[in-house]
Write a structure and sequence with these properties.
The complex is a heterodimer of chains A (about 500) and B (about 350). Chain A has about 500 residues and is an alpha/beta fold. Chain A is built from 17 helices and 22 strands. The chains are: A alpha/beta (about 500), B mainly alpha (about 350).
Amino acid sequence: MNAVDAQVPRIELRGIDKNFPGVRALDGVDFRLDAGEVHALLGENGAGKSTLIKIMTGALAKDAGEILLDGRPVEIDSTGQARALGISTVYQEVNLVATLSVTKNLTLERQPTRHGLISWRLANERARERLKRLNLDIDVERPLGSYSIAVQQLVAIARALEEDTRVLVLDEPTASLDAREVELLFAIVRDLKARGIAIVFITHFIDQVYAIADRISVLRNGRLVGTAPAAALPRLKLISLMLGRELAHAEDRRKGVETAAGGEPILAAEGLGRRRYMGAFDLRIGAGEVVGLAGLLGSGRTETAKLIFGALRADSGKMRIDGKPVTIRSPRQAIALGLGFCPEDRKAEGLIAELTVRENIILALQTKRGWLRQLPREEQESLAREMIDALGIATPDAEKPVGQLSGGNQQKVILARWLVSRPRILILDEPTRGIDVGAHAEVVALIRRLCKEGLALLVASSELDEIVAVSDRVCVLRDRQKVGEIVGADVTRDNIIHTIAGG
Amino acid sequence: MEHADRLPAAARPPSRLGDLAGRKWFWPVVALGLILLVDAFVSRGFFSIGIVQGRLYGSLIDVLYRGTPIALVALGMAVVIGTKGIDLSVGAVVAIVGAVMTYLIHQDMAAPWVLILTLATGALCGLWNGLLVAVLDIQPIIATLILMVTGRGIALMIDAGLIVTFRSDFFSAISTGQVFTVPSRILVCAGTFVLLWLFLRRTSLGLFVESVGGNAAAADLAGIDARLVKIGAYMLSGLCSGLAGVLICGDIRGSDSNNAGLFIELDAILAVVIGGGSLAGGRFYLGFTVIGVLIIQTLTTSILYSGVPPEYNMIVKGVVVLIVLLLGSRRFRDRVFGVFRRGAA
């Protein structure tokens, strides 16, 4: 293959800006990718990884900046053009058609023809050729869906790879693979790298980054916060780059926390877990206590919350509430036992768009009361009004369908739903995501007030500052395992980051 | 458009006509008004109501009388559609219920027991649909298609492929009798409507139905047993179809498994959609559904009375329904009337 020229990068992005309404997604990002290297691109949710990739592959137009391919400036206006320039992407979700054969998937855009008709014999041959580049020998006439996710992922890569592919972007290719399958994939990635292809590798798994990447770039809040050779970037440094702020900073830890550690916990989970979702963990929450769930994306925060709430059914472990053993097999049971759960993905799991603000707010309280005892209309209205005022929900009135509110206000409505249901144990998954700064403070203040009244809180958040600000105790998760617990005065950013890094 | 001023007053008077046009009830009510207006010119005496042989008589009464089976089926259908489902089997349930009712009457069973068992049969059919949809997770259109196809077969099996007739004062009274000059089936239908409304809107079941239809995952996390709600909705639909079957077969005094309730599902679905229900689920309107039924039945009756050849019946009906739905669609109004507005400017 062609000699690797270390001087001219294969592709270079300079000063890339991208704005979405109200959000600066990318802010002067420089990114440089050399031929024959695997370059890991890291960052938490919303850091700008996908935006950067989409600009590089022509799926989005940049607002400012320039792109150089092998030293020559290029304009990439469409994905088709990106492919013509030798830039290919494999997206996170395998976007192939599972019910079609492997051949049909590989020749979806262009089937070989003979006498104007599609020649499937020729198509099969071509498909086999493409797979051979990845050392994959499978029956191409079988439906894609009959193969494992790993093989499907490889077929997706085979589809993206052309003879002249110079840049290959892999967006979380390992998200649904097990360890053996990841090894298989990595062997192929190393092989492609040896052929001089420049590879961008996006993942959340830190171990995999060190296993495969030559260099690492970290994005945070739309800015490139660092690029370094993998060998020269210790894990601790990497994680603090991802989460923001340097280590050894003074912490303004909340003072004078009255921990309820002495008392009997309201809720105690022992060895709770579910295969493939979350390893067995212990967790206790006392009255008036706030327990934080910290960890990187994909570390199992949401899974932990859902296991406790019964939205995911545990296949191991026990739960106690007030010391009495309970089994929670559904959210309905959890709510009856005094739990509440404000989900992370509020659009998919929280909001009922056609219903009004009032109906959305009283829903959980109503299910708790049962279908027969309907809340009187006046009470519904006063509860809704109270919450609209307390949380500053911007809506002309309580009878507007909630689907017509803005994102932040929709989230407040879901929070309101759980607050009015008066739970004893409330689980908040990303409670302030997408909420504006003013409301953010209101929500945190509200959480504190509720805890004074004896509410037990479990807060999962990707914002370390938020966790540190509200938590009496923090459970630290890594790769779907609980790896540590930090209590009281030790709850600091540094300690959490150390625990995540495995220090 | 000055017609709008004569509409029943809304809770608060909207400031602009455009505001009014956006309301869910506006276009169905206008459509019904227009159809009646046309009738006033086309068929003489359409609005005259008299008493003949101790019974209310007239075209409007006829509309109500003939509309009752569709109304009953449509009310159940509205709830099912509210859960983001659909029930294609309602016509077949009418046939099954008719055959079961006829069979039981011939067993010399006491009439009230026949009624109870017959309605239970309808609910049982709904339970079957509900289990397929909620437990086996089959798409509603397919799940209920199964009973739609097999249901008439089951009915034919019960009555051995014959049109079996019966004499029953009890069922004739329910279906074709009258109470103080008012046809009894209109009272049955009105009573069902009130009971359903109380059952769904004076408890939280209506809210639960709409939550499940709007976002089943969210409803589940809010503590609603989505499965149970869906099963309940299909059972309710089966029960309503059962009652419609009692009226239909009480009218013809026999079972007619091939024809009883044929295509009634189409009228019912249309009525729900005209009444503002969306097949995407999330909302149901019992009152507007009845208006939808009235539109369809008035149309059918008007075409009959107007002297338009009956072979055009279906086409006229289809066109009018299409117009009502188009007017109710915001995007259509914006496109078409937007052009006029721009033209005027």
